[in-house]
Amino acid sequence: MINRECGVYKTTYQSDMAFFRVPLARSTIIVVLVLAAIVIPFVATDYWFGAIILPFVIFSIAAIGLNLLTGYCGQISLGHGAFIAVGGYTAAIAYIQGVPFLLSVFLGGLNSALIGLLFGIPSARIKGLYLAMATLAAQFALPWVISRVVPFLVPTGLAVAGGDTVYPPAIYIFGWQVETWLDRYFISLAFLVLLTIFSMNLMRSRVGRAWIAIRDHDVAASILGLDITHYKLLAFAISSFYAGIAGALLVFFYFRIAHVNEFDLGLSIRLLAMIIIGGLGSILGNFFGVAFILLLPIFLNRLLTTVGEAAGIYVSTGITSGVESLIFGTLIIIFLVVEPLGMAKLWENIKDYFRLWPFSY
Amino acid sequence: MKIRLTVVLLALIGALLLTGCGGSQATPEVVVKEVEVTRVVEVAAEVEEEEAMGADMSKDPYIVALAGYRTGPFQHTGTPLGNGFQDVATLINMQGGIDGWPIKAMEIETGYNTPRGVEAYERAKTEGNLVTFIPFSTGTTYAVTPRAFEDKMPILHTGYGISAAAFGEAFPYNFLLSPTYWTVEAATLKFIAEQEGGEDALKGKKIGMVYVDIDYGRETVPLMEVLAEKFGFELQKFPVEWPGLEQTAVWTDIAERSKPDWIILRTWGQSTVVSLQEAARVGYPMPQIIGCPWSPTDQDINLAGPDIAKGVRANYWTSSGTDIPIIESLLTEVHDAGKGFGPRYEVGTQLYNRGVFNGAIAAEAIRLAAAEYGHPVTSEQVAWGYEHITPESLKEAGLAGLVPPGLTTSATDHMGSPFAQIHEFDGEKMVPISDWTAAYEDTVQGLIEEAAKGFMAENPDLYK
Amino acid sequence: MEFFFELFVNGLLTGTLYALVALGLVLVYKASEVLNFAQGAMVLIAGFMVAVLIYLGIPALAAVVLGAAVMIGMSFAVERLVLRPLVAQPIISLIMVTLGLGLFLEGVQTLASNIWPVYTIDIGIPRAPIDLGGMLILPVNVIGAVMAVILFGATGYVFLYTQTGRALRAISDDHEAALSVGVSIKRLWVIVWGAAGTIALVAGLIWGTRMSVGFSLSLLAFRAFAVVILGGLDSLVGAIVAGLLVGAAENLVAGYVDPIVGGGTKEFFPYLLMLIVLWVRPYGLFGREIIERV
Lengths: 361, 464, 294
Fold this sequence. Notes:
The complex is a heterotrimer. By secondary structure, chain B is an alpha/beta fold.
């Protein structure tokens, strides 16, 4: 991932397919984990946890999920915002009905996987852009269904008015109350680490190889004897499972409220932007992409406000957010023009450049 | 070549991120230092000069944060709200602040997007002495309410948000300071009944509700269902899916099939413009359309075309116009001095005046709290201030005539005054055509208490 | 029955507007196999630009002409700065680039609209409805329909009877073969994006008059997505037929089903219709089937 590979010679297929392909990788991962688990809690303030770190962790889960589907299996989905909503709502309602926390998060993932499977069925017949647009149906139909079904499942709530707003109560895990941002961060991080390891291992398995074959050429894959419908549906299910878990964590920890308008088409598009900017078919790229799409607007906004204040003028927020969107759009274009394959590829290029450094020729 | 470009690019991004982070982290530290300094200065200032013009900008300002929107589908309604809010903060600071302490109107852009509203709340807390958060969106109000319990932060949602928040015991940090959605809707029904010739005449009538199908739009449906049963009229619901830009079928239905006698409009932003145009298309009589406080506004009518919208009515809880002390001073002291945030023609429109009301009432609460506890006050103490607003204190703040009469709050009553007033568009502006009215208060209060107590029972953890 | 006809006719009129935006999408797709996510933002910026020009005191007609000139000028910039560096790159990167372009244009509009708070276009279209045999219709819808017919006619003519049209058909048939016989893809991209910009301008004017110039204009393009997929991504005829179909069907469904289920069917019905059609015809009603070889 982020290690120099020079000097490593692989002599067996096993070593080429190993989880850590470079000896240094093991220690790098440990360093990153130590940073995440020990250093960040000491450095970060509540604002950093609440507005930046926690959403980064949770959206990374969703992005990895979508990357499994789009980056590895080659099926574009514009419905993931809705799958996240399904997961979030299912988990919140289950928790209110008395299901233990961890189980309700799992249930959220499971229900989302089922719905994802359902909306993945068209992939048996449709492909490419047509399929992408077919998943758009999920994005528009599911919120409608949610806002009509949820009021019957939670008879009273904060929004008395027929509300599709669900409001998860205080969270207890085996009697321990999750209260601070730190608790929320650690639980989300645990999910992220587990799901990342799972996805990396999945890619080393038969399923992962089948997905890549389908992405690269589905007709050839089916001629080779792969049941491509089966694998495509599996991709939809697993990908939506990730989305569902992310949705549950979003509802429990970040929004602390399930509100259907939050999971709109914009969210689906942002997720897709994350993995494309980050790099399709790259786990590391996910993190780059999430950082870019999620955090850059926040930083741009702060930067513009800071600059405005330093210059002693109060700029209308309308103007700053216009400039923000303008710069953000430009940066997306520039990044893709510089490297159409995303930031993961950019990273590879930089690594290649330094591979023989300082003795390059 | 590509590599070099990449490295430069990444360096640029890195620099950008660093500046961004730097801004967010450095602020609290700076603020802490300022507080220590100003405590010394404060004593001196109070002794020396009470009547100094202009707020003492070296003092740690009170921050009132507004999660506004000058972008997105609600731009034309969010902008005047924000401008009024900014102007009143300018005015207060020019007039010496709050006992010499400056107030900072901090606006954070959300585009009417709830997650960004939550982010705005978290960010506002890091900027210094935040004493009030104004969400300007029903969705954001819901989302930040549990956080307000934890932070003891007053959430000021005037005329929108959680109706049950009128019941102060259940929502100690939510302040409406204005009639709830339900209260206003009941008054609207009363007005309809009067037009029909009494409540008995409502029997068998058809009343339609055109609303955007989000929390804001749906909020009054349960109340109307109760009232429909009580008075025997037929309630017809016409939900419009968010963001409500396509209403052809709804209005054709209204004109050709359902034929309601009256329509209560609960749309917002561009959807109101579409509603008015479609109503004109099917020829529905405008005076039979009565909006909730947020639709139609002067801005919506201007966009839909003043010629077609003549006669449309709305039930407002603030007065329009410039004939109000504080609005007059805004015109003479702020706009004439060229310090106005927005265009001058906006001053006096409903939404601008509501922006003014938000800023002014927050300042008033700070003043009341400071009179009780002394500067600088904390957010929890400002919440106390919001609970002790009286008509006299409002008059002093120049708000008399802007707010409903008799606005008095207490620890249990976070609504203050139940009165609203029907306005009609006379071809140029909205003019009041009825007295300040309140109606069916028992029914409304019953619903409010039921909802609030339900909330208390469901969330015992919040009240520990 | 009155109810039915009023829904139906108004639906058809709305449908022509969907077809108009769909036309822009189909043109861009034919030339570059890209689904243009910036089309909605183009509608927004074009409409807003004309509104501002009128607000600044330029006569309506001149403002429209100037707007069209800017949209065409923009197509040159887009081709040179955005599309050309991405030739022969993965399609998904190209799609993402159009999304970035959309964000850019929306940013420009947001910025400008906070400087000039203009939300209405007044190009002299009357607002009072026309009574057509008991049916009430907005004049702006009729004008929109007429404009759609004219633009479709013009596009059809160009495609069938001119050199450029032949080149466009060649390029949508087979990119590489067309390039190898000397068709200039750069020139075609400018033409296509310029045409899409002009179409966006017309749509922006019509929709802007109807529901004010605001951010929501850019959301309407997502309905046009359902339309192009339903009709077939590369089919002009498909764009018209599917546009009318979606417009009429969604209105009828909303009129008859909404009261039963509590509203909101209009938002997703076009997509449902699209799913059903795709199940039977995976490349839309009139889309060309892609035959794959290994």
